[in-house]
Amino acid sequence: MDAFSVLDAFRWNKDRSRERLAHPVAEVAIEAAWAGGLELLRFFRKELRVQTKGVANFVSEADLAAESAVVSAIRSRFPDHAVISEETHSDRADSEHLWIIDPLDGTNNYLHGMPHFAVSIGYYERGVGKVGVICNPAVGDWFVGAEGKGAWANGERSRVSSAKGLSDAMVSCGFYYDRGKMMQTTLDTLAELFRSDIHGMRRCGAAALDLAYLSCGWFDVFFEYRLSPWDYAAGGVLLREAGGTLTDCSGAELPLGRHSSVCATNGQLHDSMLGVVGPRWQQLRSEPRV
Q1: What distance in Å separates the CA atoms of residue 90 and residue 218, rounded to the nearest whole number?
Q2: 246 within domain boundaries
């Protein structure tokens, strides 16, 4: 797909998403994601200035340009709303009107030229997710949802899968940047899941897209032992509207103001997954770094 056809698909699916959702705040979120996505396309597969935040954890000028475009689009309509974003904004998580943004989820993929990354925008009122928008500008995909309006993928209604057992499941997971105990625990968890005869495992490197795919029924389960609110805020809205379940690995509600473990499923598999990830999560919580 060349640059012109990518942009055409990106614009076409954006317009279809707006028409299907027909929600005033979602329209702002979609336009903000569009602005951020255009910035990511402008820098994609170009030489970039990159800073290192930790082991395999990077921020580039593309992240910052996309974040600026997203925040500007939101604040042009809602100047008093609070914003939490991965790179530069850290307003209060208990604000009445809160936008939670990841301008570039999948930075490592992006920096290696892989077309699997996303802009992720979640809007919350008094702690309740109202709107979620996730888009991948490299392939033109849009995943959108709003409270009571359902979840949509490129203009088509989304529903979670009907898998009833782990032996029916395609599992997605993420690895935190830690290369020690947390990574080993993730690998041990995957080994246990394979012993349950899962269909397979995918580690795609962009949690927002993992949750979006789960809301479409393309994955049945996703887990990661450490994520930040901007990784799951938008996906949480999509998953709820598509009929799925999202909690931490002990089954508790996810926080908006700090990192957490994540267990996401089609709902029918949630108890089974908590039985696998829960004990290991409890063990990890006793570690000083978690």
Answers
A1: 33
A2: yes
- Is 151 in contact with 215 (CB distance < 8 Å)? yes
In Å, how far from its chain's centre is CA 233?
7
Q: What is the CATH number of the domain that holds 208?
A: 3.40.190.80
Q: Would you state the pLDDT for residue 2? A: 52
| 84 CB-near residues (< 8 Å, 6+ apart) | 90, 91, 93, 98, 99, 100, 101, 229, 230, 256, 257
Tally of helices (H runs) and strands (E runs) in the chain: 8, 14
Dihedral sign for Cα atoms in the order 141, 267, 233, 125 = positive
**Beta-bridge mates of residue 83:** 99
Alpha-carbon radius of gyration of the chain: 18
- Ranking 25-29, 75-79, 279-283 by mean pLDDT, the lowest is 279-283
The sign one gets for the Cα dihedral 150, 107, 88, 180 is positive
Same domain for 143 and 8: yes
Quick count: other Cβ atoms within 10 Å of Cβ 181?
14
Q: Over 90: is that where the pLDDT of 288 sits?
A: no
Considering the domain architecture, whether residues 143 and 210 belong to the same structural domain is answered as no
Contact partners, residue 69, CB within 8 Å, separation at least 6: 32, 35, 36, 38, 39, 103
- Summarised one tens digit per residue, pLDDT across range 215-242 is 999 999 999 999 999 999 999 999 999 9
Domain end (from 118, 134, 157):
157
Q: What is the mean pLDDT of residues 109-136?
A: 97
